[in-house]
UniProtKB/TrEMBL annotation:
Pfam families: LacI, Peripla_BP_3. InterPro entries: HTH_LacI, LacI/GalR-like_sensor, Lambda_DNA-bd_dom_sf, Peripla_BP_I. SMART domains: HTH_LACI (SM00354). GO terms for molecular function: DNA-binding transcription factor activity; transcription cis-regulatory region binding. Residues 3-57 form the HTH lacI-type domain. Signal peptide: none annotated. Keywords: DNA-binding, Transcription, Transcription regulation. PROSITE patterns: HTH_LACI_1, HTH_LACI_2. This is LacI family transcriptional regulator. PANTHER family: LACI-RELATED TRANSCRIPTIONAL REPRESSOR, TRANSCRIPTIONAL REGULATORY PROTEIN. Gene3D superfamilies: 3.40.50.2300, lambda repressor-like DNA-binding domains.
Amino acid sequence: MAVTIRDVARRAHVSVATVSRALTSPDLVRPETRARVLAAASDLGYQPNRAARGLITGKTGNIGIVVPDLGNPFFTGVLKAVQARAMQADHAVFVADSDEDPVLEAKLVRAMAKQVDGVVLCSPGLEDSRVHEVAGVTSLVLLNRRLPGVPAALMDSAGGMRSVVDHLVALGHRRIAYLNGPRTSWSNQERRRGLAEAVARHGVHLADLGPFAPRYEGGLQAADLAVAAGTTAVMAYNDVMALGVIARLRDRGISVPRDVSVTGFDDLVYAALSSPGLTTVAMPVAQAGRTAVNLLLDRLGADGTGAPQVVAETQLIVRGTTAPPRT
């Protein structure tokens, strides 16, 4: 038989109302009383009914996350971290996939707002004004998108791209290609910012190609254009695209890295398992996911009045797909 709040009240020798206050508004009861209630609840294995608690506190105990593509392993890593941190805070997570559609992103946030306390909006393609609009509907935290006035968990994509160019130039490459991701992607804009800085500093030739779909098929399509541009190194928007590039080059009899060097971005598990291993930039997705939930919980709390933007560092991971160009 399920343990009820009345059972806890009897064990702690307090009223049902006191148990309710101890569990939902601890500042309204004496510390020793709350400790006695918590001990009784723990001994009995009592689990408060989430719906009933929501009627008392006005909170659902749920948070939402909207991602652009559940088929992309990058966002799987983000989701695992978000769920793990949310569970630690006794929150459930609702997940939605916008399928890279900015209009659907806004609709999903508005729909979720009725069922959750706040939303993590991951790599949104919405225009700035639309992001501000949905931020007025529910407590909102951005992941991998910077916007004044909205809390955000960020990853230093620009710094990661600078590291990639520095690495390729150190190997001797002077003609490099960049395969752009989606035009609306803030991450792609940040990569381009770091790329422009590094290219100008080193004085190398850049073939700026795309945009391409940030998928394996996008890499298959982009590879021929990079070869036609006469480049000796190809930097893909992400790891999945880079693997498509390598596959297409292999089909054409072009060896990686002997003939062409290839780099990715994200450091998905496939990057280390591919042959040769993919040189890439490690994105701290787990750290960013945890940070996003922490920012949202802070915003839901009494002190959640600011809009902090926390940046996590990226790291170049050198593996077997980069080498000096053939002379």
